[in-house]
Design brief:
This protein is mainly α and 132 residues long. It folds into two domains: 1-60, no CATH class; 61-132. 81% of the residues lie in helices and 0% in strands.
Length: 132
């Protein structure tokens, strides 16, 4: 993991890391200015910023398998969240459920992770086909 973060600031990847981080920050600020309360453009800007933030950290990955693992992990977290919610409902512990936490986990962490993974898989497969 230490080598991964050292790669991000290596001369080969530094410009891409900074540009992706700046783009993500611009989308975050745009979402903040527009607002995300029942506002589809603001929410889409926020999700796009989160996807770009994922890529600012993960862009040195060159294998589609790494992105597939990211997709599987995010889908696994979503399934565990769904099962946990249903377990709490069956046990009549609804008062311990936090709707905001569930929405943040599902839509602002896992959904952008799945989108970043899908885009990463497509980019890696396209690069592999282009190089052959």
């Amino acid at each position: 993991m230490k080598k991964h973060f050292q790669k991000l600031i290596s001369p080969e990847y530094k410009l891409r890391t900074i540009s992706l981080s700046a783009s993500a920050l611009a989308f975050f600020l745009g979402a903040r200015i527009v607002g995300i309360n029942d506002n589809l453009p603001g929410i889409s800007m926020l999700v796009t910023g989160i996807v770009l933030f994922y890529f600012s950290i993960l862009h040195p990955w060159r294998k589609a398998e790494n992105y597939a693992i990211l997709i599987a992990a995010c889908v696994g977290v979503l399934i565990l969240e769904w099962l946990g919610i249903h377990l709490f409902i069956k046990l009549k512990w609804e008062k311990y459920l936090s709707e905001a936490a569930a929405m943040i986990l599902a839509f602002f962490i896992c959904l952008p992770g799945v989108l970043a993974g899908l885009i990463g898989v497509f980019i890696c497969v396209f690069r592999r086909q282009k190089n052959q």
